[in-house]
C-alpha cells in the first residue's frame, strides 16, 4: 500500500478523531467521512512508516449507514470539528455504545445525554483568527494543517458564544486588524477563547502575537457583549491558546457557574467543561454509587480536582477531603499548592503512618492520557475501599482498568456509565466504579 493507491475499505469502528477505520492487509486505514458499516473505494494519501496505519479519502461510497443524513451545518466538510455530524444523533449514540463494548471491552449500563438534537451545547470555545485585514474570520485548524476553517454561526457553540464571536469579527474587520500568520510569524490577533455561563454572560480571552504593536485595546473598547476581556501574548511557534500570561483589560475576570449545586468561579485560563449540563450529571454520579446512593466516610482523595466541583460534593459527606491539582489557577481556587498526582500519591504510599494512608474513596478525573502505569501502581499500593474514575478516553481507561483489576491489581470493576458530552464527535465521557478486592 502506498500513497496514490485506490483500495476498498470497510469501516468497522471510529477513531478518536471520528474517522472510519478499517483494516486492509494488516494496515489500519483511517478515512474521514466513512461510517462504521460502510464500504468505499478510498484513495490513499498517507502511509505511516512508523506504524501499520494509513489515511485516505472516499472516492466512491458503495453503501450508506442507515442513520446517514445531510449534515445540518454549512461548514461541515471544511471544518473538522464535528466529524460524525452526517449521522443522526440516535445512531451516533448507539455507535458510541457499540464501540465502547467491541473495541475497549467497556460494557455500560446506559448512555446519558441532555440534548435531543446535539446542538448549541458548548459553553467553552477556542477559536483561531485567519484571513486578511478587513476580511478576518474566526475558526479552527483543519486537522493536521495550519489551514483555518471558518466557523461563523457554529451550530454546537452556545448562542451566547456565537453572538460574541460574530461581534468580535465585525469589530476587527471595521478596524482592519491583521490576523497573525502562523507560517510567516507576523500579524496581530492570533486566538480567541470564549466562555459563557449560559445566562448571557461571556468571558473573552484574546491572544496576540505581538506584545506591543496590537489593536487589542481598541477592539476591547468597542466590544459590548463580553462582560470581561483578558489579553495574552504568544509569539512562539506553537498553538498554546493560553499564551504566556493573561492581563485583565476590562470587566469581570471570572464567571460564577453552578454545577451540581456547587458554584465555581471560572477565570480566563481555567478549564470549563464544554458541555457542563451533561458533565454535571457525570460529576453527580462520580461521587455516588451506581444506583445513586450517597457515600459517607472519613477520608476521600480527589485527584485531578480541576475547578473543585467534586471536592465540594465530597465535603458534604466525608470528614476529610484532600484535593490534588497541578494547574496553578485551579489549585489556588482550591486553596492548595499545585502538585502532580504522582508526587502527591508517592508521599502517601511511601509512608505507612501517613495521615492519608487509609482511604475510603478515591475520585480520579485524569486528562486524555489516563492515569498511566505509575499512578495505577500507586493506587494499587494505596488499596482504597473505593475508586471512582471519570475518563474522556476509553482506550487509556481500558488499559488503566486492566492494571487496577488484573492479577496485581487491588480493585474490581462493578459498573460503567457513558455520558455524551460532545455530540457530533466520537468523544465520550465514562464513569467507572471500582471497589477494593479485599
What secondary-structure arrangement, pairings included, does this model have?
Blueprint: E1 6-10, E2 13-14, E3 20-24, E4 27-31, E5 39-47, E6 53-61, H1 89-102, E7 111-112, E8 124-132, E9 135-141, E10 148-150, H2 159-174, E11 189-196, E12 202-208, H3 216-222, E13 228-233, E14 246-251, E15 255-259, E16 262-266, H4 276-286, E17 297-303, H5 309-315, E18 318-324, H6 328-334, H7 341-349, E19 361-364, H8 372-382, E20 386-391, H9 394-405, E21 411-419, E22 429-436
Parallel strand pairs: 4-6, 7-21, 12-13, 17-18, 17-19, 19-20
Antiparallel strand pairs: 1-5, 2-3, 3-4, 5-6, 8-9, 8-11, 9-10, 11-12, 13-14, 15-16, 20-22, 21-22
Helix pairs in contact: 7-8, 8-9
The CATH H-level superfamily of the largest domain is Vaccinia Virus protein VP39
Rg, rounded, reads 23 Å
Strand order of the largest sheet: 7-21-22-20-19-17-18
What is the percent of helical residues? 10-25%
CATH topology of the largest domain: Rossmann fold
Domain unit count: 3
Content-based structural category: alpha/beta
Question: Judging by the overall fold, what is the CATH architecture of the largest domain?
Answer: 3-Layer(aba) Sandwich
DSSP strand content: 25-35%
Give the integer mean of the pLDDT values: 93
Count the strands? 22
Question: For the terminal residues, how far apart are their CA atoms?
Answer: 51 Å
Number of helices: 9
Amino acid at each position: 500500500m502506498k500513497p496514490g493507491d485506490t483500495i476498498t475499505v470497510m469501516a468497522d469502528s471510529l477513531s478518536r478523531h471520528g474517522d472510519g477505520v478499517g483494516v486492509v492487509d494488516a494496515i489500519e486505514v483511517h478515512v474521514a467521512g466513512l461510517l462504521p458499516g460502510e464500504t468505499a473505494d478510498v484513495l490513499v494519501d498517507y502511509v505511516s512508516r512508523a506504524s501499520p496505519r494509513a489515511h485516505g479519502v472516499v472516492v466512491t461510497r458503495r453503501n450508506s449507514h442507515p442513520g446517514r443524513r445531510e449534515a445540518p451545518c454549512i461548514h461541515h466538510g471544511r471544518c473538522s470539528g464535528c466529524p460524525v455530524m452526517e449521522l443522526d444523533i440516535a445512531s451516533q449514540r448507539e455507535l458510541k455504545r457499540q464501540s465502547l463494548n467491541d473495541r475497549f471491552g467497556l460494557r455500560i449500563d446506559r448512555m446519558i445525554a441532555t440534548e435531543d438534537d446535539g446542538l448549541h451545547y458548548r459553553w467553552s470555545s477556542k477559536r483561531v483568527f485567519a484571513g486578511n485585514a478587513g476580511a478576518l474570520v474566526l475558526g479552527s485548524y483543519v486537522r493536521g494543517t495550519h489551514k483555518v476553517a471558518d466557523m461563523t454561526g457554529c451550530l454546537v457553540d452556545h448562542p451566547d458564544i456565537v453572538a460574541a464571536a460574530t461581534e468580535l469579527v465585525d469589530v476587527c474587520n471595521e478596524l482592519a486588524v491583521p490576523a497573525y500568520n502562523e507560517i510567516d510569524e507576523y500579524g496581530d490577533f492570533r486566538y480567541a477563547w470564549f466562555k459563557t455561563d449560559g445566562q448571557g454572560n461571556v468571558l473573552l480571552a484574546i491572544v496576540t502575537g505581538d506584545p506591543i504593536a496590537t489593536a487589542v485595546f481598541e477592539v476591547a473598547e468597542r466590544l459590548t457583549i463580553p462582560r470581561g476581556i483578558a489579553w495574552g501574548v504568544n509569539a512562539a511557534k506553537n498553538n498554546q491558546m493560553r499564551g504566556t500570561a493573561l492581563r485583565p483589560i476590562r470587566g469581570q475576570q471570572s464567571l460564577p457557574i453552578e454545577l451540581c449545586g456547587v458554584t465555581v468561579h471560572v477565570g480566563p485560563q481555567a478549564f470549563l467543561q464544554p458541555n457542563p449540563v451533561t458533565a454535571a450529571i457525570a460529576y453527580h454520579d462520580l461521587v455516588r454509587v451506581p444506583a445513586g446512593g450517597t457515600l459517607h466516610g472519613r477520608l476521600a482523595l480527589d485527584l485531578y480536582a480541576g475547578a473543585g466541583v467534586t471536592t465540594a460534593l465530597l465535603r458534604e459527606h466525608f470528614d476529610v477531603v484532600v484535593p490534588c491539582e497541578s494547574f496553578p489557577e485551579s489549585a489556588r481556587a482550591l486553596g492548595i499548592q499545585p502538585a502532580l498526582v504522582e508526587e502527591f500519591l508517592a508521599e502517601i504510599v511511601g509512608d505507612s503512618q501517613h495521615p492519608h494512608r487509609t482511604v475510603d474513596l478515591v475520585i480520579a478525573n485524569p486528562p486524555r492520557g489516563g492515569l498511566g502505569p505509575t499512578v495505577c501502581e500507586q493506587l494499587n499500593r494505596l488499596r482504597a475501599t473505593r475508586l471512582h474514575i471519570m475518563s474522556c478516553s476509553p482506550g487509556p481507561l481500558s488499559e488503566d482498568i486492566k492494571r487496577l483489576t488484573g492479577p496485581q491489581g487491588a480493585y474490581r470493576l462493578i459498573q460503567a456509565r457513558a455520558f455524551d458530552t460532545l455530540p457530533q464527535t466520537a468523544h465520550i465521557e465514562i464513569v467507572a466504579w471500582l471497589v477494593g478486592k479485599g
